[in-house]
Predict the structure of MipA/OmpV family protein.
Amino acid sequence: MRLSKALALALPLAAGAAAPAGAADLFSPAPLLPEGWIVTLKGNLKVGPSYPGADDFGAIAFPSLSLRRAGTPERFGAPDDGLSFSLLEDSALRVGVVGRFQGGRYLKDDRRLFGLRKIDWAVEPGVFVEFWPLQFLRARAELRHGVNGHHGFVADLGLDLVQTYGALTFSAGPRLALGDGSFARTYFGVTPAEAALNGQVTPYKPSGGITSVGATAGVTYTWSAQWSTTAHVTYKRLVGDAADSPIVKRFGSENQLGFGLTAAYSFGAGR
């Protein structure tokens, strides 16, 4: 497992959502200072496939930050949400901007990729909307566009069931990921020239559509009004043209596992 050099690259996306809170507390005042601002700082460690479709793991560590006025609710954020900032927010609806980081695919990471083109890291800015049809059920959608490593559109859809038992908050729910043709060709396609150089894969031109289905589960322990920690696990099953890619079948895996840990510290700041 490698520690990604992408820490510095993740910093521009460091405006993250606040740490998860219990379903019963989603719309209640935060238990910190009644005036000024509340700042939440997070340290995040995520481990997952080193590139989409890979069968080995890479790691990335990055900070994130959120701000909210004292007395406003601390909103639940699933551990696999993109780093987001709300522009519109009420009791059941939240809309805003979001960003994610996607690591690159490099020959030094896997010598079997010889002849396949290098894919640089990418950032994916976009928009999100989430809705709470019930106080314990959240639906969220993200639409993003790649910059640098890929230039396609991607989307993530998910549902989360959120329950709190004392200091523990559990969340779990299904996930669906989509990508357009540009995204699919970047990570799962093989040109005739690449196939000839590599010698182990055949040419392949995938189309866009659903790229994976899966689920995410997380648990948060709230130590105090200031401190909380979160652990989570994600599972994705590549489907469609992504799963049929010769890169996945020859060098990777349709089963994509991920793990993560987050430590969050909240404090009040004067006006």
About this structure: The chain has five helices and 13 strands.
